[in-house]
Amino acid sequence: MNRGSRLPLSHLADMTDDAGLFEHALLTAPRREHGYCLDDVARGLAVLCRFPETSFLSDRLLTIYLGFTLAALAPDGRCHNRMATDREWRDEPGLGDWWGRALWGLGAAATHAPSNEARKRALDGFRVAAQQRSPHARAMAFAALGAGEILIADPREEAARALLHDALDTLGPADPSPGWPWPEPRLRYANGAVVEAFLVSGVALPAPRAVLTGLRLLTFLMDAESHDARLSVTPTTGRGPGEAGPGYDQQPIEVAALADACARAYGITGDPQWREGVRAAWAWFRGDNDAGVPMFDSHTGGGYDGLEPGGRNLNQGAESTLAVLATAQQAQRLGVLG
Fold first, then answer.
1. Among the record's GO biological process terms, what is one (predicted)?
2. Are 48 and 301 in contact (CB under 8 A)?
3. What's residue 53's pLDDT?
4. 3-class state of residue 306 by DSSP
5. Which of these, 21, 167, 37, 25, lies nearest to 102 by C-alpha position?
6. In this predicted model, what pLDDT tens digit does every residue of 57-75 receive, in sequence order?
7. Does position 3 have pLDDT exceeding 70, yes or no?
8. Most exposed of 113, 139, 230, 299 (fewest Cβ within 10 Å)?
9. Cis amide leading into 14 (omega within 30)
10. In this structure, what are the phi and psi dihedrals at residue 235, rounded to the nearest 5 degrees?
11. Is pLDDT of 5 > 80?
């Protein structure tokens, strides 16, 4: 991936059929027997909406992902997550992370999809899902990312405004312990999304204290997820007070969420340290990580599923591929793709 080049979507396309995005891969081949999940499809919708220029392929993928996300909505705003290849849902509608990511994807599409029709369909879907509230902080953080996009674009959108207020109430205490400022007892997964939720809520509402909270948490997170002048992100087991890295497996989604948070902070403050954070995130994918191995295929855009002590998980699933593309988008936009 070179600066100024179009990011390759060939692996993402290989992981997609006319129904949706397959969740898992065996090396580069989609594992169709595991079906599709809204978690990944909605994440893909958000990523596709961030391309400054569209193509026939990106438009086709966006149309598929938007259709899947809307089909996952129940009338009361809850969402299905898992669909099998027979096109039947395998779960009951719920309010887990997938619900929050649906709102994230729909919010992105409502403001950035290439056609008026797609933007209208996405906004209608957002309003359906925004009837609900999740008891889970991560789900509400993901939902806030979509609501923030909509409210920034249209301050009259009350469904988005109400959701952001409730997300801030759910995300954590206003005055956390100075020894552990994170609003949870442990760092978990996609931690950057929590930070970005504070930042985007603070800009959209507006709520200046939320912006300050987000910047304080991002400073803490960058310090906690760095080791020997490179990113060493929270492993799958999490990380609590006093626990030092490196730890494994490190997941690409953690790096992508950190890149998004740093890009958002740079857009708000213009502080070059946050641009450097995006550069460090992209460097992690290029091999400046604890195992010293690249975490993506530069020819196809496929992402490897996890960083391990001796190298990498060679499977290229949907989540990791989207994490690569999302981080590359931010690096390209800020001129640090290199």
1. carbohydrate metabolic process
2. no
3. 86
4. strand
5. 37
6. 999 999 999 999 999 999 9
7. no
8. 299
9. no
10. -80, 180
11. no
Bridge partner residues of 25 (DSSP): 30
Contact 260, 191 (CB under 8 A): no
Whether pLDDT at 176 is above 70: no
DSSP strand pairing (306-308 vs 230-231):
unpaired
pLDDT band for position 175 (50/70/90)?
Answer: low
- pLDDT band, residue 129 (cuts 50/70/90): very high
Cα-trace Rg, the chain: 18
Q: CB atoms < 10 A from the CB of 56, how many?
A: 7
List for the chain the helix, strand, coil content (%; round to 5). 50, 10, 40
**Alpha-carbon gap, residue 237 to 214, rounded angstroms:** 24
The CA distances from residue 179 to 168, 185, 220, 244, in Å, are: 22, 11, 10, 15
Residue indicated by tokens 């809520």: 201
Q: Which of 188, 92, 85 is CA-nearest to residue 137?
A: 188
- Name the phi and psi angles at 188, rounded to 5: -120, -100
* CA–CA separation, 50 and 125 (whole Å): 19
Query: For residue range 271-300, what is the model confidence (pLDDT) as tens digits?
Result: 999 999 999 999 999 999 999 999 999 999
SS3 per-residue string spanning 33-89: HHCEEHHHHHHHHHHHCCCCCCCHHHHHHHHHHHHHHHHCECCCCCECCEECCCCCE
Mean pLDDT of 302-317: 96
pLDDT digits (tens, 9 = 90+) for 49-59: 999 888 999 99
